[in-house]
Amino acid sequence: MSIKSIPYNAQLQQLQLTDIPFNPITLDDITEPFYRYEGSDEYDKKAFRTILLAKFTDLLGSNVLKLMIITPKDQQSPFDGFAFLANQNIVAIHIPNSGNFKRWMDDIFKESYEDLEEDRADGIFERQPELNPNPQFLLELGRGSFSIKMANSGMLFDEKPYENTGAYLHKKAPAEYNQAALTNEKDHFIKIYTKPNAEIVNAENLEPLFQELLQAKNLLPNEPEDNQKVFVEFESLANYKFPEALKTLLKWHNGIENTGFLSAAKILAEWKIWKGIYDDPNWTLQDLTGNNQADGLKTIGVYTNPFWVPFYSTGGGNFYAIDYAPGVQGTPGQIIAFGADEVKIRWIAPNLEDFLRQLISGSLPL
């Protein structure tokens, strides 16, 4: 099958609907609708999303990051669609309004059409003649996303895929298309705060404090290991040194039973996960900073960043971490709490020594 596509670039914004080549695509082998689970009366729309994205990825020869499908203008017309490919090309498609694909779509848009009928019966289109009594609906699918919107309805905030179509597609492109710009925005934000390896580590104080903690709480540390490979991998990915205080602590343990202390390998694994979230283009700076608060001026209000090194799990995806991106009144190497449930990025201690003292005294639970 010869597929015509449009490159995602600045020139895309100049294209009109008539400039865009549509490719007829048949989906004869799409599975018939099935229920979410035995006894359910609701079709598994999320499973269908996965099936559809995989099908178009196969047909178009490139991973489909986002798919937009617009309901037909009438019963004789096809569904219009736009597939945003990982290779930064956009494929416009016509899908026949028939078969199992139509059955899935009829179910997906059922409530939308029922609401439209209620609006007609209510007389909203007579009262507001600027509205379109026969709008279309738009389905947006992507990794973890599934949404339905009105199109060409006449409302102020409306999807208008057929007006200035190239500019519309440019605006609707998935976040991955603008990864460089998004990365620069995040890098500029975090650069202001980063001070990696700027703390003063007193190894002579750490050892007696650690031994006191073991005795006071009757703890059994796992035998320490040679973690040089872990440190080298961390430093190659982070572009700064593995925290010296943690290196010192890991001379005496490789995780501690019945506590949240992590082994070197688990520290690296958790750090990779959180760095992956920060680097993910689907997580914009607004997403990362929109729901988290700073602890006064000692920490910064961001969900995660690569300059926090989690070394102690408090459970449920939450951690204590060495902080190399402190707030303006914080200090590099301070201990903070962050994670899935930590709306406020809590300041815990000025350094690892004080953190151990709090564990010993019980003011901070193990």
TrEMBL record:
Matching InterPro entries: Knr4/Smi1-like_dom, Knr4/Smi1-like_sf, KNR4/SMI1_regulator
Entry-linked Gene3D superfamilies: SMI1/KNR4-like
Residue ranges of every copy of the Knr4/Smi1-like domain listed in the record: 225-358
Superkingdom of the source species: Bacteria
Pfam families, A to Z: SMI1_KNR4
PANTHER family the record matches: CELL WALL ASSEMBLY REGULATOR SMI1
Record protein name field: SMI1/KNR4 family protein
Organism of this sequence: Paenimyroides aestuarii
